[in-house]
Amino acid sequence: MSSIVAGTESASTRQLVEAASVIFSELANRAAPESGVACMELAEALATVTDQAEHVLAGLIAVVDRTGEMKHWGLPSTQAWLRCRMGMREGRAKERITLARQLHRLGRVRTGLAAGELSFGYAATIADAVQRLNDDDTAAAEDILLTAAGEGLSAGKVAKLGGKIHDLVREHNGEEKPPEDVQRGYERSWVTVSRSLDGGCYLKGWLNPEDTAILDGTLAPLAKPAGTDDRRDLGERTAAALTSVLAGGHGATRVTVIADLETLTGADVPGRLRDGTPIPAEQVRRLALTAGISPLIFGRGHIPLYLGHTVRIASAGQRRTLETLYDTCAVHGCEVPGFLCEVDHVDGWALGSPTDIDKLTLCCGWHNRWKHTNPQQIQISKSDGRFVYRTLAPDGIARSRRSIPEHDANPWRDDQSLAA
């Protein structure tokens, strides 16, 4: 067992984090007590400590977010940093970023979380509710939601209150409450449009269940985040999706089926969609004859498309081939969809890389620029016909052991490394 000798007041933040790491490493190797009562007590105490650790983490994330340090490591956003370097899922990363950005405006929440008197769940819920309020309304909202939490409402119910926070703030401030149109029980859907002085407009309305299902089915797929650095909230993404539908942009959807030539001529080799979903050979052959379905056929080893040095911009056929090969940006850990990426010359067009299919990949706009300005921090490999870019630490800084998952601790063991 490791021993810890440290004066907490004189110790640096790094020393305290290292001490906490030793303690939790030791706890991780301890078996839980046999007593259910003891485990319940210890779990509640440990949860309080974990909430306090979340307060510390929020402060650290806030500095990284404000300074943009993650960009020096080839990560375009704070969310990408939390996902790639800390292994957080998208929802968990967003929750912590929101708390980090809002905590300085929430004095009582900050104090309660630091003291272990307010759980992370409540703190994150309140931070999410106030992120689009001004400072005065934030103070009112904080009072309302903390009061609700103090009265024993669950974090889920507090979140529902947060969804109605604008009306609650008006009531708290003694302002007249707007008409509750949604409670009138309309059988027919309705929408009103009110023009604003700056040329925009406000939309207000109510949809019956049937129309709501149509709305959800149309807008929900288009309102998903565009990538790791998409910082728009759901309301902003929904507005963009509605605009896309009204402009007819949603009609450009196509289905790409990938199949060997032998499959179309009778072999029992399944095809696949771009996301890897397998398609039985018989169904592939039926799809190939269906109007509106455009099959992209690869022969054995894939059909190469070469333009050499005569053309810099990839052709439509090359781009479509790349979008089939790459679901996302070629940078390891970046999840910007391939259809939103730019075509990148792997060895650099200016350095003589031809516009040939085996020298091209898809790279999001941010990483494409970053690769050009930081070539010494890009490691390039190729596997199964696809290029993989991995970002390296800045000179003189060693990567932490969490930067590469254990199952991929030696990503170069089978691939030939290429100079950037």
UniProtKB/TrEMBL annotation:
Compositionally skewed regions (Basic and acidic residues) per UniProt: 403-420
Stretches for region Disordered: 400-420
Coiled-coil blocks: none
Annotated ranges, domain HNH nuclease: 318-369
Source organism (scientific name): Actinomadura barringtoniae
UniProt-listed InterPro entries: DUF222, HNH_nuc
Pfam families linked: DUF222
Domain of life: Bacteria
Protein name as annotated: DUF222 domain-containing protein
